[in-house]
Amino acid sequence: MKIVVLGGGESGFGAAYLAKEKGFEVFLSDRGIIKPEYKKLLQENNIDFEEENHNEEKILAADWIVKSPGIPKKADIVFKIKQKGIRLSSEIEFASEFTNAKIIAITGSNGKTTTASLIYHILKNDGFNVGLGGNIGKSFAKMVAEGNHEFYVLEVSSFQLDDIQNFRPMISMLLNLSKDHLDQYNYNYEEYALAKFRIAENQENDNFFIYNKDDEMSENLLQKLAIKAKMLPFSLKEKVKEGAYATENKIFVKLQQEFSMNVEELSLVGNHNIANSLAASIAGKILNISDQSIRNSLMTFQAVEHRLEEVAEISGVKYINDSKATNVNAAYYALESMKNPTVWIVGGVDKGNEYAEIEQLVHKKVKAIVCMGIDNQKIIDFFKDKKDLIYSTSSMEEAVQVAETVAEKGDTVLLSPCCASFDLFQNYEDRGNQFKNEVKKLINI
Fold first, then answer.
1. How far apart are CA 320 and CA 166, in angstroms?
2. Between the CA of residue 283 and those of 107, 117, 270, 294, what are the distances in Å?
3. Where is the binding site for ATP, in residues?
């Protein structure tokens, strides 16, 4: 069988590596430049590849094509593949065909990385043989090729779910929905939401689907969709008979028996993280993990990098890195969890943001807005009559310097950009790391 992999990053190399391990004829094609570390791995594993080109003759001769999630589904080569009727899969689909391990798959507009990492922490703490991968930055396919894990916890994006055929997790999870990546879904919110719901489309009645009962779009679509898996809701607003919910002071998980613990014992702060903890706890109880073990894991989990990560406190000012907040909903969660007057660093590549969703929170929590990007006009235009202190900057160095000048003792400087990073940075990690480096420079002034 001839396998062609499109894209030469973490996902692409992983798929090519697994295909090679399985004895298939493999060719990897990337229209861009492949990073040196992946090029080296391809050469070391004798995997045929090309870069800065798509050899259509070679690609369209494939029996099965694996597409990296970064390649737009509207790309010309994708259109030609579909025209020819060649099977086109995401890396998670491809890898899942070669493992009998139980899969716990997490999707949603926000909180995927935190919740996937938390579930991995819960399972690992309880002695499970478990791997963590997917959209979180570690190739699922490479782990399947190298390991013999009995469980995989996968963070899954809508782009990965666009290209599944048989992918069937034991436990699937849809944390929330908000308007994100709409440019890839014809600016149609329901089309994007339905892509997320594909996580459950192949599940049977012996599987589980965990969902957010407070999410309006999820509730609406559940009226239309025929999901076969056992559905288990979580809620911050109401009690549920089976699933999980929170009151002001406690969380409750109800599956056969009831497990509860105090909210103040959770290591993660903010309502969004209470929701993430509820979802993760349901998964733990499905797998018969003890109450004490789940409680211990929820108390000891450390927040993921670039997600409400406290960097430093300098002269009484806290600096928090939330670079992973690439949409309005994520920034909403960050602002909601702020306890002190906040200097908010925001901006980047706008993905169709509607800032009205956070207008009240900004009014209540934010003392100054520091815009950071090549084009800050949309943010400035929306907030100029609502906030007196708005600054425009075009680099991380400038943004942090302005924020440091404006912030007073007792304030918080929050990087929660609300936007994609590609105008000034390689990715959200690069943006977060630059923020941390600039903050650390302030310590040495």
1. 41
2. 14, 13, 20, 10
3. 108-114
Is the pTM here over 0.85, yes or no? no
Q: Give the residue extent of every domain in the chain.
A: 2-85, 94-300, 309-443
Provide the pairing of β-strand 171-174 with 243-246.
unpaired
Which residue bears the tokens 């003792």?
Answer: 409
- What residues contact 316, with CB distance under 8 A and at least 6 apart? 408, 409, 410, 411
Domain 2-85 has CATH 1.10.10.10: no
Segment 280-301, tens digit of pLDDT: 999 999 999 999 999 999 999 9
Query: From edge to edge, which strands make up the β-sheet containing 48-51?
Result: 48-51, 25-30, 2-6, 64-67, 87-90
pLDDT in tens, 220-251: 999 999 999 999 999 999 999 999 999 989 99
Class of domain 94-300: alpha beta
Exposure of 215 by Cβ count < 10 A (0-12 exposed, 13-18 middle, 19+ buried)? buried
Annotated binding site: 108-114
For residues 14 and 140, the answer to whether their CB atoms sit within 8 Å is yes
How far apart, in whole angstroms, are the C-alpha atoms of residue 417 and residue 307?
11
Q: Select from 333, 309, 338 the least CA-distant residue to 323.
A: 309
Distance CA 299, CA 115 (A): 14
